[in-house]
Structure formats: C-alpha cells, structure tokens
C-alpha cells in the first residue's frame, strides 16, 4: 500500500474510533455503563459491531479510551482556571471554590463545548463507582479533586484535614448531581431555574458552597 493509502486508512480508522468514543460519551452519560451494550455503542456510532471490537475489544476498553481522549483536557481546564485566578496572588477560600466550580457549570451549560458530554458522562458514572470495570477510569478523577483540595489547604493553612476533606467532598458530590440532573432543578424550582442553564445560578451556588466550606473549616468565622 502507498503512503497516501496508509494515511487514508489511518484517517478512516481514527474517524471510526472517534465516532465510537463520541457515542460512548453520550450513551454512558444517558444510560450508564451497565445500561449500555457494545451493540448500542456501534449502532449510535453507525459502525459495524465488528469494527468496535477491532478497535477497542471490550466495553471497558471503550470507557478507558474515552478517558484517555478527554481527561487531560478537563484537568488542564481546571488547572488553567486556578492559574488564572491566582495571577494576582494567593487565593482566598471563596476564590478557590469559584475557580473549581465555574468551569463545570459553564461546560455543563454549553452543549457545544468539547468537554460537555465527557463531563456529563463522568458525573453519571459516579453512581457506578464500585463497578470493577468502571472504577479504574473514574479513580483518575481524583487528580482533579486534588487540584481543589491543594488550593483550599493553601488558602486555609490552619484547617483540620478531616473537616477540609469533608467539605470538599460535599461540594464535589453536589456538583456531580447538578451536572447529571435531568430536570429535578426545573421541577423543584417551579422552572425559576433550569438544569440546562446551571451557569445562571452560579452566584447562589458559589455563595452556598463557600459559606458551607468555611463554616466547616473555621466554625468561629462569621458567615
């Protein structure tokens, strides 16, 4: 085969892989890992099932490949948010919360963002954290959590570790549910707010998270 033919074949192969991974982000985000079959993924990607098995083999390897493709982009987004916020000096606790939370709210609200489906997928899959095929991929997200806890430790050097970890966990747990929310916010708020427009309640979200975290870390501080 000529070099041009090799390049064309490689390009077709990459397009096929990308189609399967795009399908995986959407279906894992909608149905979860256990609710999605390789046949579902192939149908969504509009490729033959044999091609999916050729490129990835098994469903857990498809999931791992979705993380390989987008994880560094998400980590870079959060790191960049912290770096930008810290350009003027040390961050306050409130600035740490904003720098961590806002990228997730903005990506969730922007369905055209390259990380939108990936973030929704990872949030949905957290309910399957203990599934053996899922946990190895999800545990990689701890590196992003550590970006947050490291900044909070620096902002509040006297904070107890137990309280700090409890507070950051509660923020992340709430954020995970918010991102995967299919419409509960719309109903419970009588459509004053929408799960599709989380960035529009950013002010309330940041105040709530920051005040709660500070009350855990420093109960004597005025709220």
From TrEMBL:
Against Pfam families, the record matches this protein to: TetR_C_30, TetR_N
GO terms of molecular function: DNA-binding transcription factor activity; transcription cis-regulatory region binding
Q: Where is the HTH tetR-type domain?
A: 14-74
Which residue spans does the record list as DNA-binding?
Answer: 37-56
Alphabetical UniProt keywords:
DNA-binding
> InterPro entries of this UniProt entry?
Homeodomain-like_sf, HTH-type_TetR-like_transc_reg, HTH_TetR, PsrA_TetR_C, Tet_transcr_reg_TetR-rel_C_sf
Write down what this protein is called: Transcriptional regulator
What is the native source organism of this protein?
Novosphingobium malaysiense
